[in-house]
Specification:
The chain is of the alpha+beta class. It contains nine helices and four strands. A hairpin with a 2-residue loop joins strand 2 (44-51) and strand 3 (54-60).
């Protein structure tokens, strides 16, 4: 999966710090996959469909930016690898089926495509993270420095995987709030900005 992710990054000219939803939309376009945003419960993140050689992906429109990006890259793996095992012409992806091997592989592919593990390890080293001694404040700094379009959940999984933190060590930490405490509330989350946006819509 990691090799496939590296190959596809190269093919599509992906670099971690410029990767975003627009870039993924370009990748979908060049792979010939249609995208439909769709109103769904939070349990289903996205659905891959291929009907008569016509691939499309439904994406849950309620997902925030980083999870949406992750879900879209996850679906790319189904496009590359799983077209022969579609059930009723589709694969529905959510947390509930994360245990299946095919789904786990898609998670590994997405993680590596979005933020290669080696880049993460280099960044962790450059900010001086030490195994077993990482504080929540350091996780906030890592997220700000790394430049990768990933969520705190993503970083926590990586930190756990490489033994920087214990599994579930920061389960009770609200990282977004901690970041706002340390660095202020970003403009797009401030009440006056939200009110302005609502008026325009
Ligand atoms: Zn899936």
């Amino acid at each position: 999966m990691k090799d496939l992710a590296a190959e596809k990054r190269l093919k599509h000219g992906i670099s971690t710090n410029t990767l975003g939803l627009q870039k993924i939309r370009d990748v979908y376009k060049s792979e010939g996959i249609a995208i439909d945003l769709w109103e769904a419960s939070h349990r289903i993140r996205a659905v891959y469909m291929c009907d008569g050689g016509d691939p499309s992906v439904l994406v849950n429109r309620n997902l925030p930016k980083e999870p949406r990006l992750f879900a879209m890259v996850h679906e790319l793996k189904h496009h590359y690898c799983d077209q022969t095992v579609l059930k009723n012409g589709q694969i529905r992806c959510g947390d509930y089926n994360a245990h299946e091997l095919m789904e786990k592989a898609a998670e590994v592919f997405a993680a590596e495509f979005i933020y290669p593990a080696q880049e993460f390890l280099d960044c962790a080293k450059s900010v001086g993270l030490k195994n077993g001694e990482v504080s929540p404040e350091e996780v906030v700094e890592l997220k700000r420095v790394c430049g990768a379009p990933v969520s705190y959940k993503f970083l926590q999984k990586r930190l756990e995987w490489y033994g920087f933190t214990e599994r579930g060590e920061f389960a009770k930490i609200q990282f977004q709030k901690l970041e706002e405490k340390l660095h202020g509330v970003p403009i797009f989350r401030q009440p006056w900005f939200k009110a302005r946006r609502h008026r325009r819509n």
